[in-house]
Structures are given as structure tokens and as C-alpha cells.
Specification:
Blueprint: H1 3-8, E1 9-15, E2 19-26, E3 31-41, H2 48-66, E4 73-77, E5 81-82, E6 87-88, H3 104-112, E7 119-123, H4 124-135, E8 143-149, E9 153-159, E10 162-165, E11 172-173, E12 176-177, H5 184-195, H6 202-208, H7 213-237, E13 241-245, H8 256-266, E14 271-274, H9 279-294
Helix pairs in contact: 2-3, 4-9, 5-7, 7-8
Protein name: Glucokinase
Family: Belongs to the ROK (NagC/XylR) family.
GO molecular function: kinase activity
Length: 307
């Protein structure tokens, strides 16, 4: 592969609690190459070998669809994580316990046969917000708080285009930490605690909500908890916009109005928006790590399919 092609293309991946999505990013044309998009299911409670092999397989499939060997890889990764050295520090978060302390960068370097220096990691909430600020729900706003609600609770802040991870999920809340209250497992646990029954995901609760006052009350409780947790944060940070993404955002019809009413009571001019770009925001935000390395001006192509 020529040096020019190496500079122009990045295999980017978004690591979720139940899946990995990978695709090749054309940095010169500022777009995702759709034919390379690959999504595989990941068992975050599996063994280290099972997890890492699935990640490597997704990256491999993406570049095989592209037709050229991998030369640069960027991953949007949940924390806590040593992003510079590529070592997982995730523990006690009910996911990816098996890879704690492992050097993911070294593993992928050997598995994909590329230089470890050409594998970059970025916090997933940071990557998500980067994409949304450039061409999504946060575009045009000076100070944006990004929240990802899914298997975990991600958070990042963008001020004048500079994005940093906030790691609010590790902050104390009630009898535990925020991650335990603003993630899928809270909904499943709360429903079981209230009814004695089990459901497989938040989508199941949505389907029951029309006929279940219990489910509607659970979503109301979620909105109250999240508004109370964010109250001091939005007053301290003075954010113009909050952008909400992640799988739980798909249930926004159940909680967004209540959350908005409560948060705007604390900050009248605050706007709460749903993310627009889906996984594509994290894919582009992760690839942007190579932008800062080479000084390229990457702008997300808001018109690509899936937007």
C-alpha cells in the first residue's frame, strides 16, 4: 500500500457493550465507505479470547471488503481505558471484565500485522460527541454536553470544538455510581425489582409501556434521577446543548419530555437534543485521532447514507 493511501484511509470501529461496528473511513473524501461497514455481536461477559477475536474479525472483515490490507486503525472504546497505551482498565462495570489489564494495542498489532503506532484509541463518548458537534445535533453550539445511554453511561464535553471525556459514570449517585442508574441494567433491574419478572432489554419495556403503568413509572423515575444528577453539572459547566445518544435514546418518547422540563427549570436556555448520526458519529470521531496526528482538517460528510 502506498504512503498516500495509508494516510487517506482508517479502519475505524465503535466498541459497544453488545457489538462492534467497523468500517473504512476515507479521510480525504471525508466519508465512510459504506460497502465496508461490518457489525458483529460481542459477548461482553465472554472470555478475553472470545472478545478480542471478535474485535479483530470485525476489523479484518472491514478491510477485506475494502480490498486492501489494514494500515491504520482507530477504535472508539468505553472507559476506563489507558488510551495512549491501549490497555483495558474496565472492571466492576458488568462488561469486558475478562480483558482487564490486557494490552489491546499489542494484540491487534500482532493479529492484524500492523505497526502498534498506527493503532489509536479514543474514549467512545468523546468520539460520539466529536461527530455530533461537527455535523450532528451539536453543530453550531459553543458548549455541548454529550451523553451516551446504553450498556454504560458515557459523557463528554465539547468547548469551542475541543472534546474531552468527563467520565461522569464513575461519579457517586445515591447508593452507588451514576453508571448503575443510567444504563440498561438499571431498567432491567428496576423492572424485576418492581414486578418480579425479567425482560431482555429496554426495547421490551417500550413495547409494554402502552399497557403498563409500572413501565411508564420506571421511565418517569429514570427522567427524575437523570435530571437530579445533571442539575449541578449543567449549572457548573454552563452548556448550551445536551446531546443524548446510545440505545436508550431510542426510548426517548418515554422520558425526554419529562427530562427536558426538569432540566430547563434549572437552565432556561438549555436545549436537549437527540443525536442524529448514530454509530457513524463514533466511527468518524475515532478516526479523527489521526487528524490531530497529521494536521488534516477532517470534516464529517453529513450527507452520507445513514445520516
Amino acid at each position: 500500500m502506498s504512503q498516500q493511501r495509508k494516510n487517506n484511509y482508517v479502519i475505524s470501529a465503535d466498541i459497544g457493550g453488545t457489538h462492534i461496528t467497523a468500517a473504512v473511513i476515507d479521510l480525504e473524501k471525508k466519508m465512510i465507505i459504506e460497502d465496508t461497514r461490518t457489525r458483529l455481536t460481542v459477548d461482553s461477559h465472554g472470555t478475553a479470547t472470545e472478545i478480542l477475536k471478535t474485535w479483530a474479525e470485525a476489523l479484518t472483515q472491514a478491510y477485506e471488503k475494502f480490498g486492501s490490507p489494514a494500515q491504520q486503525v482507530a477504535l472508539a472504546m468505553p472507559g476506563p481505558f489507558d488510551y495512549e497505551n491501549g490497555i483495558s482498565l474496565i472492571k466492576d462495570l458488568h462488561k469486558y471484565e475478562a480483558i482487564y489489564g490486557l494490552n489491546i494495542k499489542l494484540y491487534l498489532s500482532e493479529e492484524l500485522r500492523i505497526d502498534a503506532a498506527d493503532i489509536l484509541f479514543r474514549n467512545d463518548a468523546e468520539a460520539f460527541l466529536q461527530g455530533e458537534v461537527v455535523a450532528g445535533a451539536g453543530a453550531g453550539s459553543r458548549k455541548v454536553l454529550g451523553l451516551t445511554l446504553g450498556t454504560g453511561f458515557g459523557s463528554a464535553l465539547c468547548v469551542d470544538g475541543i472534546v474531552k471525556d468527563l467520565n461522569l459514570g464513575s461519579e457517586p449517585y445515591k447508593d452507588s455510581i451514576a453508571d448503575d442508574y443510567f444504563s440498561t441494567r438499571w431498567f432491567l433491574g428496576r423492572y424485576h425489582e418492581t414486578t418480579g419478572l425479567s425482560v431482555t432489554g429496554v426495547s421490551s419495556l417500550i413495547s409494554m409501556s402502552k399497557h403498563s403503568a409500572v413501565v411508564r413509572n420506571i421511565f418517569d423515575e429514570f427522567a427524575v434521577n437523570l435530571s437530579l444528577f445533571l442539575r449541578d453539572i449543567i449549572q457548573t459547566e454552563g452548556s448550551d446543548v445536551i446531546v443524548i445518544g446510545g440505545n436508550i435514546a431510542k426510548a426517548s418518547g418515554m422520558f425526554l419530555d419529562e427530562l427536558t422540563a426538569r432540566l430547563t427549570a434549572y437552565a432556561e436556555s438549555l436545549k436537549i437534543k437527540l443525536a442524529l448520526l448514530g454509530e457513524d458519529a463514533a466511527l468518524m470521531g475515532a478516526a479523527a485521532a489521526f487528524d490531530s496526528r497529521r494536521g488534516l482538517n477532517i470534516l464529517f460528510n453529513a450527507n452520507h447514507p445513514g445520516n
